[in-house]
Write a structure and sequence with these properties.
The complex is a heterodimer of chains A (261) and B (270). Chain A has 261 residues and is mainly α. In chain A, 77% of the residues lie in helices and 0% in strands. In chain A, α3 runs antiparallel to α8 and α9 (140-171) packs parallel to α13 (229-255). The longest helix of chain A has 32 residues, at 140-171. Chain B has helices at 2-15, 19-45, 55-67, 78-86, 89-94, 99-110, 113-133, 145-176, 181-192, 208-213, 221-228, 233-264. In chain B, α2 (19-45) runs antiparallel to α3 (55-67). The longest helix of chain B is centred in the middle third of the chain and has 32 residues, at 145-176. The chains are: A mainly alpha (261), B mainly alpha (270). Chain A binds chain B through residues 25, 28-29, 32, 35-36, 39-40, 42-43, 46-47, 49-56, 175-177, 179-180, 183-184, 187-188, 191, 195-197, 200, and chain B through 21, 24-25, 27-28, 31-32, 34-35, 38-39, 42-48, 51, 178, 180-181, 184-185, 187-189, 192, 197-198, 202-204, 207.
Chain lengths: 261, 270
């Protein structure tokens, strides 16, 4: 385990050094990400300026939910690049080389690339979260809950990217259908789940647990609910989702027959 | 003229091959459309003042946006960017055909073939399937035959504006070389200020004149509002003028900067 961590640190250091060689491009890309995601929140602000409220939710309340979703997505987007690009790694035969090395393929995929420019999205999510947070009376319990919500949500997104990679064992291509659940899941999780239809809420509770990892903790942090078991245990559903996804990925690895390139 | 027609036809045929990708994209676009409709319905349900767009109109607008998604100038033409990066663009200059015209012709095909592939199944879903399952959630037919005819004209105008923007992005590659910065920022502008995420009439009133003046409004927003009847036939005529003016302006800018870029171009002889 300690050995794996040390190796991961080396992967990260290599990846960062490579990206910082093109410093101007890096700065432009990071600012680009900051702007592209920042403009999304501007859109939400515009809707609130027009309508005043979203079914009883204020802009600041939505900002907390939005912040959790975007920070979590930025973490997954930055670290999960190897799984995200798994289709092309598989097609090029690079995965076979990973299997030959005396380390787990999951670790090698995790170390494939740490995308530093996702800091742009992260910074944007943080800024929105801080703006939402200044209006909240924080306690040690709610601070912990916020951290748990971010980690649990990031785990859920990561699980989705792992599942997306797993399907590539059968289809070789990375299917665009998964964008509905990764990008679409992120988009849906930026708003309070209460505004959606029942079947949609159930899907994001029982199948992809984004409601459990971010929406319920947010309700408790905002003081809409008194802290209960569902708020504390909710983020764990994200961890469970990731563990199951990784187990499914293992099945894929066992199924794997090389493309032969 | 024949040369450009051949380029458009060849690109069109090549782009029609990506049918499986179109199907996967359709699922994702339906998902995003449903989330957008649910969000807007929730805002409308809580509204205390009348919105400048009716709920059926706004719902139809969302589905038109999802259907026309690929009309947006998302990124540079990767083949052209590769030519500029490697320098093989000089071979193009030896051909007896205008370079900006070639890029514009390629963009015209690129902004139509993939759109058709996704638009037709999306229309079937939003106009026939969805209203049967959930009345009031889909895309209603245009209010009149005249509005439909005008929408077809506006669609053609939108393709022209978008293709001119794409050609301009290609030109910007002569300075930036990488296809990361300019296309990314432009795509962000085009999606937000073109009405894909939020219908432009719902933006604050003080911001609307600026948004309507930009070329992006002519790509998704105006044509969709002609279709749903939010804009009258007379206003539709103004939309065509807006699109034509922007196409000409963007074409002039593209040609000007291309000429400047070519003046600095140095070819290494072997």
């Amino acid at each position: 385990m300690k050995d794996a961590l040390a190796l991961y640190r080396r992967y990260v250091a290599l990846s960062l050094r490579a990206q910082l060689v093109y410093r101007a491009t890096f700065v432009m890309k990071t600012l680009g990400h900051l702007f592209v995601t920042g403009i999304e929140f501007f859109g939400i602000w515009a809707l609130f300026a027009r309508f005043g409220t979203l079914g009883g939710w204020s802009l600041r309340e939505v900002a907390l939910i939005y912040g959790i979703a975007d920070i979590a997505f930025a973490i997954t987007d930055g670290t999960g690049r190897g799984f995200d690009k798994f289709g092309s790694i598989l097609k090029a035969g690079d995965f076979d080389r990973m299997l030959l090395r005396p380390r787990s393929p999951e670790l090698q995929l995790l170390g494939y690339e740490l995308q530093l420019m996702r800091i742009g999205r992260l910074a944007q999510g943080l800024a929105v979260l801080v703006w939402a947070g200044v209006a909240i009376a924080w306690t040690p319990a709610t601070v912990l809950l916020l951290l748990a919500a971010i980690i649990g949500t990031a785990c859920t997104f990561f699980g989705l990217v792992v599942l997306q990679a797993t399907t590539a064992f059968w289809t070789i291509e990375t299917l665009e259908v998964w964008n509905a659940f990764t990008y679409g899941g992120n988009y849906a999780a930026e708003y309070p789940m209460a505004i959606y239809r029942r079947w949609f809420q159930r899907f994001f509770t029982a199948v992809i647990p984004l409601a459990l990892t971010s929406y319920y903790p947010a309700r408790a942090i905002l003081g809409r609910d008194t802290l209960g078991a569902i708020h504390v245990l909710g983020p764990l559903a994200g961890v469970a989702f990731l563990v199951i996804s990784l187990a499914v990925f293992r099945i894929g690895v066992r199924h794997h027959a090389s493309t032969g390139t | 003229m024949m040369g450009y027609a051949a380029i458009i036809a060849a690109r069109f045929k090549a782009l029609l091959q990506y049918r499986a990708a179109a199907l996967g994209g359709l699922f994702t676009q339906i998902f995003f459309g449903l989330v957008r409709v649910m969000i807007l319905r929730a805002f409308y349900a809580a509204a205390t003042t009348a919105a400048p767009m009716s709920l059926p109109s706004v719902t139809g607008y969302v589905w038109l946006g999802q259907a026309m998604l690929l009309l947006i100038p998302w990124r540079e033409d990767t083949d052209v960017a590769e030519q500029i990066r490697t320098g093989t663009v000089v071979y193009e200059l030896t051909k007896p055909i205008d370079l900006w015209g070639v890029w514009f012709a390629r963009s015209l095909a690129w902004r139509t073939a993939p759109v058709f592939l996704r638009m037709i199944p999306m229309f079937v879903f939003a106009m026939l399937i969805l209203p049967a399952v959930a009345p009031g959630w889909g895309l209603a037919p245009p209010p009149s035959a005249a509005a439909f005819a005008l929408w077809i004209g506006c669609f053609a105008g939108a393709v022209m504006v978008s293709a001119a923007l794409t050609a301009l992005i290609n030109v910007s590659m002569m300075w930036t070389l990488t296809g990361e910065g300019v296309p990314m920022l432009l795509a962000a502008f085009a999606t937000m200020f073109g009405g894909l995420v939020i219908p432009l009439p719902l933006f604050p009133d003080w911001l609307k004149p600026a948004l309507y003046a930009l070329p992006f409004a002519g790509i998704l927003d105006f044509p969709s509002r002609v279709f749903t009847g939010n804009l009258s036939i007379a206003e539709g005529g103004l939309v065509l003028a807006h699109q034509l003016a922007w196409t000409l302006a963007l074409a002039a800018a593209g040609r000007y900067f291309l000429a400047r870029g070519l003046r600095r171009l140095v070819v290494q002889g072997g």
